[in-house]
Design a protein that fits this description.
The chain is mainly α and about 170 residues long. It contains 7 helices and no strands. It has helices at about 10-25, 40-55, 60-75, 90-105, 110-125, 130-145, 155-165.
Length: about 170
C-alpha cells in the first residue's frame, strides 16, 4: 500500500500472508480470546465489515446501511452508532486491516460462525454477491481459520478487482 491506496487484492494477499507467517513463526501460540462485547473486537468488526461494505456498494449511504446490517447481525441491539463509519483513509485501513483480522481470529468458533453470517449479510445487502466480494469473504474466513469453499462464479481475483474499479 505504498501508493496510499488499499486495493482489495493487496489487502487479501497481506491478510493471508500475515496469517500464515504468524502461524509458522509461533505454531503453538493461539490468538488471544476475543469477546463480542469488547470494544476492541467491535472496532475490528467495524473495520472488516466496513471494508466489505465499501467494496460491494458504490454509494456511501448503501455501504453504511450494509455495514449497519452486518454489525447488527453479530452485535445485536447493543450496537454503538460510532461503529457505523466507513474507512476513508486507505493507508490507515491497510494498517488496521491486519490488526483487525488477527484480533478476530481470537473469537470462539461459535462467534466465528456469527462473523461469517455478518459478512454474508453485509455483502448481500444489495441482493447480490460479486466475485470480488466472494473472494474477500474467503480471504477473511481463511485469516480467522474458518475455511470457506468458493461459492461464486469462478473469476480471477485480478479481474474481480478490475471490474470493481471500473464500476466506481
Amino acid at each position: 500500500h505504498l501508493d496510499g491506496a488499499a486495493e482489495p487484492m493487496e489487502l487479501m494477499l497481506a491478510g493471508v500472508l500475515h496469517t500464515h507467517l504468524r502461524d509458522a513463526s509461533a505454531p503453538a501460540q493461539q490468538a488471544r480470546r476475543a469477546r463480542l462485547r469488547d470494544p476492541k473486537t467491535q472496532r475490528a468488526l467495524s473495520v472488516v465489515l466496513g471494508y466489505l461494505a465499501q467494496c460491494g456498494h458504490q454509494q456511501q449511504a448503501e455501504a453504511r446501511a450494509a455495514l449497519r446490517l452486518g454489525l447488527n447481525t453479530i452485535i445485536g441491539d447493543s450496537l454503538n452508532e460510532n461503529l457505523i463509519s466507513l474507512p476513508d483513509d486507505q493507508a490507515v485501513l491497510a494498517d488496521h486491516w491486519l490488526q483487525a483480522l488477527a484480533h478476530l481470529d481470537g473469537l470462539t468458533f461459535d462467534n466465528k460462525r456469527k462473523l461469517l453470517s455478518a459478512m454474508v449479510a453485509t455483502v448481500r445487502h444489495d441482493g447480490k454477491i460479486t466475485a470480488l466480494e466472494g473472494e474477500l469473504l474467503r480471504c477473511i474466513a481463511a485469516c480467522v481459520h474458518v475455511p470457506l469453499a468458493p461459492f461464486v462464479k469462478p473469476q480471477t481475483v485480478a479481474q474481480a478487482a478490475a471490474d470493481n474499479r471500473s464500476a466506481a
